[in-house]
Amino acid sequence: MWEKFLEESERDIRSSAPKEPSARARMVTERLRKQDARGELPPGWRTGPAWQEMNGRAARRRKLRAVFGVAVAAAVVLVALKPSLLPGDPFGAGTAEAADASPLPDETAPPTAAPESPDPETPTLDEPFAGSPALRWADGEAGIVLPEAKAVGAVSKDRVEQALKLTKKLMVGANLDPKAVRGARPDAAFSVLDPKQPDVVDHLETALRSPSRKNDPVALFSRFDPDEIRLVGDVIKTRGHMTFKKGEHGGVAVLADYTFVYPVSRADGSTEVTRTIVRRVLETELADPARYQVTPGRLLVVEYDQEIGNSSCFVFDGYLHPEFSSSASAGSTPSGPAVDPYDRSRGVDDGDREECGTVTRT
Hints:
There is one protein chain. The strands form 2 sheets. Strands 1, 2, 3, 4, 5 and 6 form a 6-stranded antiparallel β-sheet that branches. A two-stranded parallel sheet has the order 7-8. It has 2 domains: 84 residues, no CATH class; 240 residues, no CATH class. The radius of gyration is 36 Å and the shape is globular. Helix content is 29%, strand content 16%. The chain is α+β, with helices and mostly antiparallel strands and 362 residues long. It contains 8 helices and 8 strands.
């Protein structure tokens, strides 16, 4: 740019330098001067700016262009020496801290590895996701991004889109609805389930009324006892993806795999913060009401599974029970393998559910 500036400046100087008029030009000028003295030039001949005025403006334009060229050249040199002077970090030269906190792109398929461990930090009431990979995850419902709907066999694109939206509504109602997470009945989730599938709906209703080892509502719903636990802030971090395929009941099946991270503290006013991590794998189907006895616009639950990190084992009262580092576990002593609850590259643990494992981080 500096060389270009020098070349343009030299060219402008040459073009603006005074030149000796030719003999013909001197003759024409002298003839016009005598005609003007005799009053022979027609009126209006000098309308418009005088040549001297035009040349003056042209010179000013060249001067501004030259000054601008100097400013640009100086700016280029300055930015080259100190890129941080430009706003917005246009060259991607931001700090490592900013990169660590930047949101992750949406997950569209299972990752190939567990997320890296950020610098160890203790979560606080003001920074409940400090030291957690979930810091870069989406907030709540924004983390459930639907794939583009396409027709599947005889199932139209609109039906596929409907199935995706209903499955998202189920996931939100079961895991993100503020009232449901704080222990209330998850009505939004029930509004999506098909009442003509009693083995699922009746089972869940029984689990909410009379939770037990056999009927445990946390198998599908994330909920905390409001007398024991309170959520820290209004944000639940979410990450996962959704896919679809041809269903077995004349419709479209949707497979959802999401992890939810809940920052919590004790309800007694303690400032200690911990996190419970819940991963849910769910398969639903929007069946064909013309061929099967189903309720139009409602979902069948084909299968569901879960993996819960940092909740007391073998406590079946219908709630999740986070453990805090300052107190001993209220449940059984961990005896199972250690698991990274943030590792979404592996499948949900199908091992011995009688064992109480440990989590490598929260």
